[in-house]
Design goal:
This protein is mainly alpha-helical. The protein has ten helices and no strands.
Length: about 180
């Protein structure tokens, strides 16, 4: 693997903007579980000012590395926000950003994104899942009554859905533990 990295570095010395070489460098670092090296190569790709799709890919991959492997949630958030600036309708990016914000204890920001996801959901099942996540996030924001009302509305609309029933039961269990 070291020889591959040396060869790619030589290629990049000749042409620092060679997209294919940079992408191969990212994958080589990933294969070695050198997450920082992969992140540095992705940053170089993001700075190339290539097509929007390639930049969104670079920022999304960078966010994944920061989130999953480097444990740097603020940088994961920044990368996802940049990807979202480039592709505001990208559902997966909105979803991932909502998750990162929730993990950073920013439930109000996450809730705004989840509301957008509910509006854009491609199916009833996906919409239901986003509504459950939204209710949980609203609860995390300290709005337990609003979360309960959201879940009750969902239960009224889908009284036999196992995911809805479980979400309501989980909510009630958390509330009982908080009181007791």
């Amino acid at each position: 693997m070291e020889g591959v990295i040396e060869a790619l570095d030589e290629c990049l010395e000749l042409d620092p903007h060679h997209f294919a070489a940079l992408r191969e460098l990212v994958e080589t670092h990933r294969g070695r579980e050198d997450w920082q090296g992969a992140a540095e190569a992705l940053i170089r790709i993001a700075r190339l000012k290539r097509s929007t799709d390639e930049q969104v890919w670079a920022f999304s991959q960078l966010a994944e590395l920061y989130h999953e492997h480097l444990g740097d949630l603020p940088r994961a958030e920044a990368s996802l926000r940049r990807a979202l600036e480039l592709a505001p309708a990208h559902i997966e990016t909105i979803d991932r950003l909502a998750s990162v914000l929730t993990q950073q204890d920013k439930p109000r920001d996450a809730a705004r994104l989840l509301q957008e996801l509910v509006r854009r959901a491609p199916s009833d099942a996906v919409k239901r899942d986003y509504r459950i996540r939204l209710a949980n996030t609203v609860e995390l924001a300290g709005e337990a009554r609003q979360a309960e009302a959201m879940l009750e509305q969902l239960r009224a609309e889908e009284p036999t859905d196992p995911d809805v029933i479980l979400a309501v039961a989980d909510y009630l269990s958390r509330q009982n533990r908080a009181v007791g």
